[in-house]
Design brief:
heterodimer; A: 134 residues; mainly alpha; 0% strand; elongated; B: 475 residues; alpha/beta; Rossmann fold; two-stranded parallel sheet; 17 helices; 43% helix; 10% strand
């Protein structure tokens, strides 16, 4: 699984940071959250909530932004704390915070793509939201 | 099976308005078609014009709908056919003509002139007939004796088939209705100078006779005096007993009246004779529907020496001036409650709400801006606007029929049926028009087949049926 998620995250390679993430298996928890959180939340949105009151395109977008924000926090937190724990210090030989922020934004991008694709797949079965976001 | 409905005078037109409203809402009628024939010399009469316009709009909406067996929609189900211009049987020599001129008094012999002056007052003889007979059935009984001469009447008789029925609507206290009903009935039963005389003479014929249910303001300059309504009614009733009931000339006879009477402005006729709708007219419309659904008590009239007339009256459960569905008898309540409520919801949605354009039910069916700006939607909204106005008028009468709260409050959409608290429904998030959209989005099946207009009305029928069941437990 580490290899699998590394293929996604290392499309943008961060010197020192990417190797450390890969060698310590830190891609795995972040990757699972990146995939599962949008799937679970959006499935609940389309099938459990399934409400005319929340079926506008901007409400869907707001939900996806919230999911992205959550995954941003997870990506930054897990990567920063994980690498800090490995080195025992924030002085790791590469810019830690900017690398974590950049990585978190990559995670946000993938989160958005997963959210969009999953929405397109499952929306048709929803009675109230089958035309959300369009 | 068609029912030819002769609506005589102002009451006839107002009842036809009520009939149209009931059929638009989907009240069940076993007739395949209603064929209105309005008899009123007052061509510019407000009631006549209003009824004719409404019926034409009904027809325009209905023409876009499909009623094949798979379709469940009952809105506009029964056809209202226009077989004569403006649904009116034209009367000759009533415009720009005084009554004495109509009878050619100046050309009569001395003896006939004397007899005529004995039978008619000078006021009668001088009266013009442009706006009708102004409460004088004696004048009407002469002028209306011309049905057989009318091409349109001949066309009606020519189109008449053995399965068809005839229904006559008239008041007993006016001029046109009181005189027109017995004359028309006599022509239908006895005339050989019409096409298909055998079929028409032996047809299943019913009638509603409307006794006084309103009064008019006292006006010394007007020919109409409501103080004479009851005495005219009594006089006509004794004539009907002799000439109609006792010789069983009619198969089904309905009576309706009300002793609680609103006072209207005193208008002899013309465009200003346009009374507000009254519950008595709705009852009269129900009489037509009852007749359309009824068996003929004299199926073999020409060979039957034992003819009988079925007489019916209408009553409510409780004598009250605020009639809701709860005060109606069980049969009437069952007939009216569901369709009137469904159509009311349909009218509320289209008339009060505009936030639906991106909803799945709209997008799925390709209902774009052009559709919602189309003539079909405009005409439908006009009919629905007229429906809400009709309900409001009845609610404003002295004897009010007021089953609905007619407010326009988007936060209380389902606070609609008086005496019934709306139930809480799932999902809890969706309330008011959101809940309405929820049910619309949830409706598929036949409502996604056919032309857009058909899909639209079928969808709303099915969704409102579900809402009425979920919210008010009405089915």
């Amino acid at each position: 699984m580490n290899e699998f998620f590394a293929n996604w995250y290392e499309l943008t390679y961060f010197e020192g940071f990417s190797d450390t993430m890969y060698e310590n298996g830190l891609y795995i928890p972040i990757g699972f959250c990146m995939v599962l959180i949008p799937i679970v939340v959006l499935t609940l949105y389309y099938y459990a909530v399934n409400s005319r009151r929340f079926n506008k395109w901007w409400q869907w977008l707001l939900l996806v932004i919230i999911i992205c924000a959550i995954n941003f926090g997870i990506a930054f937190g897990v990567s920063y704390n994980g690498i800090y724990d490995v080195f025992g210090t924030a002085d790791v030989g590469f810019p830690l915070v900017p690398s974590c922020v950049g990585f978190a934004f990559i995670n946000v991008l993938w989160t958005f793509i997963i959210s969009f694709v999953w929405s397109m797949i499952i929306k048709w079965g929803s009675t109230q939201c089958r035309r959300t976001p369009f | 099976m068609k029912v030819y409905v002769f609506g005589i005078g102002g009451t006839g037109s107002r009842v036809m308005r009520a009939v149209t409203m009931l059929l638009a809402s989907g009240v069940e009628c076993k007739a395949d078609a209603i064929v209105p024939i309005i008899i009123d010399p007052d061509a510019a009469g407000g009631d006549v014009e209003r009824a004719a316009t409404l019926m034409r709009r009904y027809g325009e909406v209905r023409s876009k709908l499909d009623f094949s067996s798979k379709k469940q929609n009952k809105f506009f189900r029964t056809e209202i056919m226009e077989t004569m211009t403006n649904y009116r049987l034209p009367l000759s020599n009533t415009e720009d003509c005084r009554f004495d001129e109509y009878m050619n008094l100046s050309g009569m012999s001395k003896e006939n002139k004397a007899l005529t002056r004995l039978l008619f007052s000078q006021k009668n003889l001088d009266s013009d007939m442009e706006v009708g007979f102004k409460g004088n059935p004696n004048v009407g009984s002469v002028v209306l004796n011309q049905f057989e001469d009318s091409i349109q009447f001949q066309n009606f008789a020519n189109d008449f088939t053995a399965q068809d029925k005839i229904f006559i609507i008239s008041s007993i206290f006016g001029g046109t209705g009181a005189s027109g009903f017995p004359l028309l009935l006599k022509t239908l039963r006895t005339s050989n100078n019409i096409a298909n005389p055998n079929l028409v003479n032996n047809a299943h014929i019913g009638a509603i006779t409307v006794l006084p249910y309103f009064q008019v303001k006292q006006d010394d300059e007007s020919n109409i005096d409501s103080a004479t309504f009851v005495s005219k009614a009594k006089s006509a009733l004794s004539y009907y007993l002799r000439a109609i009931s006792r010789n069983n000339a009619i198969d089904n006879l309905y009576y309706v009246a009300d002793d609680t009477r609103t006072t209207y402005d005193n208008e002899e006729g013309g465009a200003k004779q346009k009374n507000d709708a009254h519950f008595v007219e709705l009852i009269s419309a129900l009489a037509l529907i009852d007749f359309a659904n009824a068996q003929n008590p004299n199926p073999d009239r020409k060979n039957n020496d034992n003819l009988r007339t079925v007489h019916k009256e209408f009553g409510i459960e409780k004598d009250t001036n605020e009639i809701t569905f709860g005060e109606l008898g069980q049969k009437s309540r069952k007939q009216l409650r569901k369709p009137l409520t469904q159509f009311n919801l349909f009218a509320k949605y289209l008339g009060e709400y505009s936030g639906f354009k991106s909803q799945p039910w709209v997008v799925d069916r390709g209902l774009d801006g052009n559709f919602f700006d189309s003539d079909f939607i405009d005409t439908l909204k006009l009919v629905q606007g007229e429906y809400l106005a009709w309900l409001a008028e009845m609610a404003g009468q002295q004897r009010a029929f007021t089953p609905f709260n007619l407010h326009r409050d988007s936060n209380r959409v389902f606070d609609l049926v008086k005496g019934v608290s709306p139930r809480t429904t799932w999902p809890l998030f969706d309330k008011n028009f959101d809940l309405f959209d929820n049910r619309l989005n949830n409706t598929g099946g036949e409502s996604k087949l056919g032309e857009k207009e058909q899909q639209f009305v079928e969808l709303f029928y099915l969704a409102t049926e579900k809402l009425v069941k979920d919210k008010f437990n009405i089915d």
